[in-house]
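A reminder from the course coordinator: this example appears on the midterm review sheet, so study it carefully.

Given structure:
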């Protein structure tokens, strides 16, 4: 098998025709599992010069302004994009390699535009996603009320076994909060998806959200026959920090 070069990170194309796994698009032989995870038999080199063993696509979705881009920037660069809000146009991606139980897992993270006018672009990418981080903004009730509609859309366009996690973002904004944490928990339970609150501003639970998803995906792909199933919500509950804490 020839060595595979990962797709570019920052500055990925905004056009809907670009594929999340460019090697496949180019017709190169990329070994995949049944669900499409890139799983090379030998480590591959990512564009940032990092080797990885397995790669997955994760999509950030949710209403415009909930903090998808900020969450990704916080995770990738450890910084917060303060100041004026620049709404994402179309779709973009960044790569990050995590070490999960000794396995180097590359996440190719797709940041989608929440605005309605870009919805058809987003739809085209759902089917390639292995995991979806669905965000609402705890200071914006409408973004919370729209979660059901987002889930309907996800079920229509995404793979049946896609990993979904609900995130209530902007947990730092205590004074502006209009959605209680318990409401988020209740909704997540109703839809059977794991949940936690995050803050791109303070960094609260940001690393955890991506790590938990990477762990779930890695376990699904590489589980030994006798190994128990990874319990995503249990892991999150154990590792999660509450508002007022200062994980970064
Ligand atoms: N207080 C607080 N503000 C945040 C947080 N995350 C994002 N913001 C602010 O919310 C606004 C929108 O953030 P973005 O990340 O651009 O939102 P988005 O979901 O990417 O929006 P679209 O690209 O239009 O879909 C910006 O002004 C951010 O500074 C957070 O965790 N806490
Ligand atoms: Mg954005």
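Designed residues:
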């Amino acid at each position: 098998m020839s060595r595979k070069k990962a797709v570019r990170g920052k500055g990925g194309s905004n056009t809907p025709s670009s594929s999340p796994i460019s090697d496949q698009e180019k017709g190169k032989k990329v070994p995949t599992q049944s669900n499409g995870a890139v799983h090379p038999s030998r480590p591959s080199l990512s564009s940032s010069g990092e080797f990885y063993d397995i790669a997955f696509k994760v999509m950030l979705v949710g209403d415009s302004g909930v903090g998808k881009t900020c969450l990704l920037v916080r995770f990738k660069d450890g910084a917060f994009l303060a100041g004026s809000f620049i709404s994402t146009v179309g779709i973009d991606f960044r790569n990050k390699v995590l070490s999960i139980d000794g396995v180097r897992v590359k996440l190719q993270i797709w940041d989608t535009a929440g605005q309605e006018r870009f919805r058809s672009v987003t739809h085209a990418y759902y089917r390639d996603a292995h995991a979806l981080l669905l965000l609402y903004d705890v200071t914006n009730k409408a973004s919370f009320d729209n979660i059901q509609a987002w889930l309907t859309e996800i079920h229509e366009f995404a793979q049946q076994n896609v990993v979904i996690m609900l995130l209530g973002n902007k947990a730092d904004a205590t004074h502006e909060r209009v959605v209680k944490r318990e409401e988020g928990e209740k909704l997540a339970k109703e839809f059977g998806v794991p949940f936690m609150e995050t803050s791109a501003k303070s960094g609260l639970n940001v690393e955890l959200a991506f790590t938990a998803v990477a762990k779930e995906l890695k376990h699904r792909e590489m589980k030994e026959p006798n190994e128990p199933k990874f319990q995503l919500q249990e892991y999150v509950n154990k590792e999660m920090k509450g508002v007022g804490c200062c994980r970064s």
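The first helix runs from residue 22 to 25. The pocket of guanosine-5'-triphosphate (ligand 1) is lined by residues 64-70, 81-82, 85, 87-88, 113-115, 169-170, 172-173, 199-201 (CB under 6 Å).
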